[in-house]
Amino acid sequence: MSMKSGSLGRYIAMRVALAIPMIFVLLTLVFVMLRVAPGDPISASSGGAKMSQEKIDELRAAAGYDRPLIVQYGDYLADVVRFDFGTSVSTNQQVSDVILEKGGATVTLATGGLVFALLLGIPVGLLAGRFRDSAFDVFARLFGIITYAAPVFVVGLLAQQLFATKLGWFPLEGETDPLIANDIPATTHILILDAIWVNDWEVVWNVLWHLILPAATLGLLIVGVFIRMVRVNLIQTLRGDYVEAARARGIRERDVVVKHGFRNALVPVITVIGLQVALLLGGSVLTEKTFNWPGLGKQLIEFLNSRDYVAVQGLVTFIALVVVVISMLIDIINALIDPRVRY
Amino acid sequence: MANLPTELVAPTGPAGTAAPKRAGRGRLRRTFAPILEAHGLARFMLWTGIAITGFFVVIAVFAPWIAPYGYDAYESGGERFPKQESPGGDHLFGTTVQNFDVLSRVVWGARTALEVMVLAVVFSLFIGVLLGLLSGYFGGWLDRILVLVMDTLFAFPYLLLAIVAAFMFSDVPGGGIVTAALAITVVYIPQYFRVVRASTLSAREATYVEAARAMGAKPRTIIGRYVFSNVIQSVPVITTLNAADAIATLAGLGFLGFGIQPTEAAEWGYDLQRAIPDLGADMWWTATFPGVAIVLAILGFTLVGEGLNDVLNPSMRKRRIRTVVIPPIAKPRQVVTVAAMPAAVPAQGEAPAVEQTEDPATPGASETGDAPASATGEPQEEGK
Amino acid sequence: MTTANGTDSTTRTGSGTSRDTTAPVLAARDLRVWYGSERGPVAAVDGVTFDVRPGETLGLVGESGCGKSTLGRGVLGLLPPGAAVDGEVRFAGKNLVDLSARQLQQLRGPELGLIFQEPMTRLNPLMRVSEHFEEALRTHNGDLTKDEIRTRALDALRGMGIPASRYESFPHEFSGGMRQRIMIALALVLRPAFVVADEPTTALDVLVEAQIIQILADLRRNFDTALVLITHNLGIVAEACDRVAVMYAGHIVEQGDAREVFANPQHPYTQALMRSTISLSTTGLHYIPGSPPDLAHPPAGCRFHPRCPKAMKVCAQEAPPEVLLPNGTRNTCWLPVPDMTTADGRRPLEVEEISVADEA
Amino acid sequence: MARTKRVIAAAAVGVIAVGSLAACGEKKKDKTPTGGGSNSAAANTGATVILGTTDSKVTSLDPAGAYDLPSWTIYWNTFQTLLYLPAGSTTPTPDAAEKCEWTNPKLYTCKLKDGLTFSDGSPLTSEDVKFSFDRMIAINDPEGPASLLESLDKTEAPDAKTVTFSLKTEDATLPHKLTTGVGAIVSSKGSYPKDKLREDNKILGSGPYVLDNYKADQEAAFSVNAKYKGDAKAQNAKFVLKYYSEASTLKQAIQKGDVDVAFRGLTPTDVKDLRDKSGNGGYSVIDGEGTELRYVTFNVKTAPADQKAVRQAIAQVVDREAIAKNVYNDTVTPTYSMIPAGVQAHTDAFKEKYGAPDKNKAKAILDAAGLGGSPVSITLWYTPTRYGAVTADEYIELKRQLEGSGLFKVELQSTEWQQYQTDYKAGKYPAFGLGWFPDFPDPDNYTAPFLYKGGYFKNNYDNPQLNELITKSQGQNDRKAAEPTFAEIQKITAEDAPVLPLWQGKQIAAARTGVTGMKETMDPSYIIRFSMIGKK
Asked: Where are the domains of chain C?
């Protein structure tokens, strides 16, 4: 292995350095957007007839809303650096606690959706690309377009009505059956991992069983992107110079397609996964609402409904950070897999 | 919903697009030629998409004439519509829990969707193009900041962005439609920004801009033209896909309850959300029709966008494989042997002596194989 | 840089004549390769006949788009979908045109080799050099052990001047010249009897080019490999080829001993091509007006006639015969055969405005 | 005294609840002891009962931190209060207390029962009671119910068994307040900080149940508290609150048998469908009494609602029967007083004054005030995000009725709840819809909050005569004696019409066949007594 670890290290350092201004801009955007929003965060969320003006002022002072915006902005940045996303006005919880409590479910759902999309999208995309312009290819492309065109909430409702209500194959909603997961200690706060940790396979299966419909719904949102991506990549790869070169060396067609075509066509998919994270998190808002999945998206809607700006700001900040960090990680993973990326 | 971020037609280098000098009509013809030439799946997608979209636009534009009743009508001739009536009779698509006529709601919903979509596309086009031009033209710190901000917006979960934006703009005059349009606008500005900025940058560096500048033409004008010709190439795809997304986002906002209220306008997402209880109560029509409308409208625009992308993006254009059948050789090759070498560079008309093996007048007789084996030992099976 | 077994490069083994009696390794007869297109069939290669003997190098020259690469690939059966091949390519007692895709695949590598123009993109970026060799050797010699593979691969690489220490590297870690040598090593590790080198040096700088040419020269001397060298560069042909074939618009217009052809070009196209070559002695820039014809609708008669300064009436009407000259050169032209044409036919063709394809 | 938070709690769509019972069998497997197989008429006290609800907004598990029904539902079952309301009764009855009585109108004294312990076995003394009230006031959490204790001056524990409450002003409703979440007795021995909320999502109380597990928005699991000393006799071993985010899902859950009882949050359409299908669905729909109130408030300083004639004309036109029928499928009952039927001292004041809807009478009223010329333009506000989406339908119906009289031109406006509250308090809306969900079933809780000096919604209505009557009623510790006072209050309200009561919600539950006790606990107190619900 003559891989030069030096260049990899340099690449990672560069990529991390690139993420920093992006995070900064992101935080600024979130701050500006939520401070431009109408209404005073404190009085809006407490709605407070019964609250005296003094009490409101006190709360405002406690939350720091009485200080100049620029000072608040500084505090906000300083807090985020310490992973302090504020305290919800409507539920009195630390937003970081909310994230800890609900984040696991969203991670589970998003991962499930991603896995579903990959499991479906990659084979379909590969076949479609391999047999370009065949009936299967046409079907695959139309399938991708239709799944892309059907909004998550329509698909979710349909899936729920058909597979849960009418056929009864899957549970209606939620992450587990009642009571079943009560004894699982929260080690990672991702229920399914916690259950594996304590070897409670009944809970693991129960979560998986509950996960299928929402994950498929969310996965369908992005499966089109994968089909498309894989198909296009494979077509381009199979037209590629090194594929022709391999053929010229008399490599068997099957090996050409699999070793030179598929493998190379799949590399960019990793990058696309990075791009899909934002989409998955956005889609999870609607999916979590439809399937009553106890994640951050559903929580965010509740915070929005109660105009809990502090909590919304905290959650949105966190989600944005996640997106930036994941896309950074994906780039780094990509560099590990594809030696060219490192330059 | 999502942007399909993969391989939209990116503006190519200067050679990729029509030269700015070309007359507008020629450019248009060039732009549309591929559409007319499209074939296969691209053609199917394009024309199906155009048909669906056209249907949608016609319904939206002529909603007042098409819809049997107003979007908030609950009675006709003093007689109240029945509640949750199944389709048939006076109400082809049935009625809702609010005594609305579903058909009318769906038809008027098309108009709402179109209004929001057009506003959102126009806003984001305008702002995105303006910022892209500024950024690409002036460069420097303005460019760097704008790029960073746009990249950040682009990376953001778009639905979250739209929801937050919907809150930001909830007091904007013009009501729910403008609010929704603005919320969606925020999401799509970065896409136009990117395209226009890239075009502007490459235009700035293009040699003919240098030349034009040297000749005293205003670079701004040149860039404007150049960018325009690029924009006109890539924007249709982005715009149609964005239009699809706009409908989906609007419906998503409505579905979550952050959208337009029923007395303000008919909106599919809201209607669908309100129809969920009906769905469980065997009243399929209140959810089905708005649901189908949402999917169809999005599908129509997506198909147009995908079809356009296929057509305009040559690398993805379907190669129609035409198999060739090679006809038998009509006239076999004649081989003649000459005895003497011609002059090194023979002048015209000057010919070396020829030892003619075949009568040129009767080429048919000069069948293959008849050519005498040459001294050089050339193969015998000529012309076989 | 020298090749490991670098020998004196100036030595040129005997001219073609001494080998003319040897049976050709590969013989093409009336080979035609047509593509389908929107505008009708494109006759990219349209009735080509040539022989290559063991250890012989045939240079294939001509402008871009005249069918050289198609010819090279057509021989190996490496054509895109929709292409049709007709005629005969006789190799080891078989007609390659009639073989199935599978049979062709088995021949490619151990019998037929192809070296490409652009070495930068011809290696799979995700595979180490070693994996490329393993794959090729495994495919054709399934019973080789890993060590044997390694030995053979390293031998081939060493032959190209690539040190064994780079065996496990990824393609992107090599320069263009090194990659081309790896490509050649890959093509040769299976000792093919016949190799097509499709502009192997075009993308490389001059020093590297010389190296590669040297390597190819060594190759045919050491292994008796028959080589078709496709190139734009007439200098290379003069230096490295025994025989040369000049292609124009899907036809071979002239072929013969390289030195003969260069010393005394017969076909007006060859003459024009040579005039256009820039060398130290060049006094003015020559070029051939116009561009090669659209092969979907080639001109009638001689395909070069619209651009031919010596075109006669007959040239526009009837395809010229192949004229076998005493020095062994074959020239497809009406000029040397006045007896076969009428006086009227030999009248100069009226110079039309050269109908050039649009710049677009 | 405003219980804004309470209004929030009231939230649920004017609706309903469904309950039912069923052995929800196989899926719960080993973890859920089911009552299946037992045909005995007696409830299976070893059963696990699962109650599904959309009332999931539990603000806090600390009684000092929440003033809403979902939270209080948990408190009522896990904490003891000095007094409680037995099912079907509106009279506070001793619970943790042996007995409570007025020493004088400003001093209330309670004696604790013997041998009370918290679920961890530690004794419950008067110090704990004093601690609970002191900390409630000290924390004064904006989301908490401390405002209910405004009349309380101080709490004292003269001995281990005695607690005394000294009042700043006379407050006959104190016993009622002691039955609510504000009266929950927490342990003073460390688990509850004295000046801030407990945040670990655990509960230490002395009520009939202990909280085993709580997952916000998902479920709360309870089991019977072995150390509990009180009147409740648990009909089950475990009780689960399963929270649903969508009413339609809850409805499907009861139909499939995923839950034993579905309660609150179902839409009128859901209820109708459940009723239609209940015959062979393995469940039945149960109607209980309901005192949830929905009404329109007029800002008497904002045109055109500043004209009494306009308010009266609206009251004269509105057809409550039609609202109940058209919008709510009769899942709600028309109400003609701010004190709903089922609560002491209720009179049909508005019906007595206005009679049946009559546009001619309304026109006469307007004409008399010189407003009869052209239709009166009025903007009617509602919020779609607090009381369920069906609120929109209700206000559309109102608009239709008002415009149908030819006397009004109505513009409907809506905004999301938080903005809505801010704006109506700022007097921006002439007429706006609100809902009320009682803290306790005492008529004072339906009058003082709205009518006393502008009420909690600050509609500027300030009638000295009414203020005086309210103060008087609050001093009347014999609630029977206060009835004439309330009759007078209601009469004046109907005359001035600063608020327009529209309907009161029934409590509706759906329960799987075999579930017992659900109907009994659905009384005007809105307390779900877990212990009463069993499975056969």
From this structure: 16-111+192-359, 124-191
Q: How many Å apart are CA B339 and CA C125, to the nearest integer?
A: 56
Using the 3D structure, point to which of D146, D167, D199 is the last residue of a domain.
Answer: D199
Q: What is the pLDDT of residue B68?
A: 79
Look up residue D112 and give its amino acid.
Answer: L
3-class secondary-structure state, position D320: helix
Q: D18 lies in which domain range?
A: 1-25+58-199
Q: Would residue D205 count as lying in a domain?
A: no
> From CA D397, how far away is CA D415, in angstroms rounded?
18
User: What would the CATH number be for the domain defined by C16-111+192-359?
Assistant: 3.40.50.300
Looking at residues A11-32, what average pLDDT do you find? 83
How far apart CA D310 and CA D315 sit, in angstroms, is 9
What residues contact residue A103 under an 8 Å CB cut-off, 6+ apart?
A189, A295, A296
Residue of D nearest to B258 (CA): D416
Q: Which of C21, C322, C325 sits opposite B334 (nearest CB)?
A: C322
What is the per-residue pLDDT across C55-70, written as a single tens digit (0 to 9) for each? 888 998 888 778 888 8
Confidence at D123, pLDDT banded by 50, 70, 90? very high
Burial class (CB in 10 A: 0-12, 13-18, 19+), D306: middle
**Predicted confidence band at D204 (pLDDT cuts at 50, 70, 90)?**
very high
Q: Measured on CA atoms in the order C218, C221, C227, C229, is the torsion positive or negative? A: positive
CATH code, domain carrying D453 = 3.10.105.10
Mean pLDDT of C134-138: 85
Pair of tokens at residue D323: 């609202």
- Stretch 355-384 of chain D: residues touching chain B, C-beta under 8 Å: 384
Find the CB nearest A306 among D140, D256, D418. D418
Cβ separation of A101 and D57 shorter than 8 Å? no
- Residue D209, helix vs strand vs coil: strand
Reported ipTM: the value is 0.75
Q: Could you tell me where the DSSP H helices lie in D15-125?
A: 25-28, 69-78
- Supply the pLDDT for residue D50: 92
**Mean pLDDT score across all residues of chain A:** 80
Nearest residue of B to residue C82, measured between CA atoms:
B323
pLDDT, tens digit (0-9, with 9 covering 90-100), for A95-125: 888 888 888 889 899 999 999 999 999 899 8
Task: Looking at the structure, tell me whether residues D262 and D297 fall in a common domain.
Answer: no
**Amino acid residing at D69:** L
Q: What are residue A57's phi and psi, to 5 degrees?
A: -60, -40
Which class would CATH give A103-303?
Answer: mainly alpha
Residue B8's pLDDT band (boundaries 50, 70, 90)?
very low
**B352 with C29: Cβ contact below 8 A:** no
C198 contacts on A by Cβ (under 8 Å): none
**For C308-316, what is the mean pLDDT?**
84
